[in-house]
Design a protein that fits this description.
This protein is an alpha/beta fold. Helix content is 39%, strand content 16%. Bound molecules: manganese (II) ion. The site of manganese (II) ion has 6 residues, from loops.
Amino acid sequence: MKIDLEKAVSMLQQAQDVEILSHHYPDGDTLGSAAALCRALHLLGKRARCTCADPVAPKYGFLFEGIERQEFPAQFIVSVDVADIKLLGPVLAEKHAKNIDLCIDHHGSHQEFAKNTYVDSTASAACEIIYEVVCRLGVVPDQIIARAIYTGITTDTGCFRYSNTTARTHEIAALVLRTGMNGPDINREMFETKTRARLEMERSVLDSIEFYYNDRCAVMQISRKMIEGSGADEGDLEGLSSLPRQIEGVLVGVTMRERKIGGYKVSLRTLAPVDAAKICAEFGGGGHNAAAGCTIEEPFESARDKILAVIGKVLETM
Ligand SMILES: [Mn+2]
């Protein structure tokens, strides 16, 4: 059932022993949302903990500093920034197929799976919504909450550069910065500092880029061999998918990442009027207008050709 923000807040107000679920391949937004909400619930005297199928990359470790890890049987389960139950990862998706009480999300392509769903697709990040939730719960954000919210917003907006960035995005960023938290430090850590493994990844993925449709589409490959050869972890891979679209004239940037279990995780970054979510929907995926993803369980060449065929049809009309 779709609910409004007020109802979502009142459910959290009444909830006890809360488990907060993030999506797999966790990014700054799903982790920032979980950390901020968990901290707010602790400040209200409730028990709460964060759960994710994949380990938290070291660059996001600071989000959970100062948040005590609590063990208890969960009474209330809430997911944050999860557009589709599949995105919890296979194990958690099966475990929580029917028992998620509340879902808070900002993906326009959201596929309902929870008992109660609040989606605001105008929010640049789930963290924008979580900021509202925290305040409406009566919690004054401290620096732990503030930096978690800021991290989610800055990572989902590419440091306030993407088209999802609104006046509201900047307003919330300003409000959390007023706690005295250090924004520039977070942005340096998220966008400027790279590990050696990350640099090696960039070297090899840039080399893999191929152009199609009069250079309006660029396809980049991230193979298991590249990942293993560079020693990259999940955090080192994040944001690589924004590289193909940075090329002048490219309307569709495609990143094809080979999965451990075979097949490819495909990430699309597009410029208007190309709708990334619509293209990914053809393969059972989704996301936003400018950023979306799907999975194609085929070897590289056939997976690439399948996505290229759909992209070609879209570009043909432009
Ligand atoms: Mn998000």
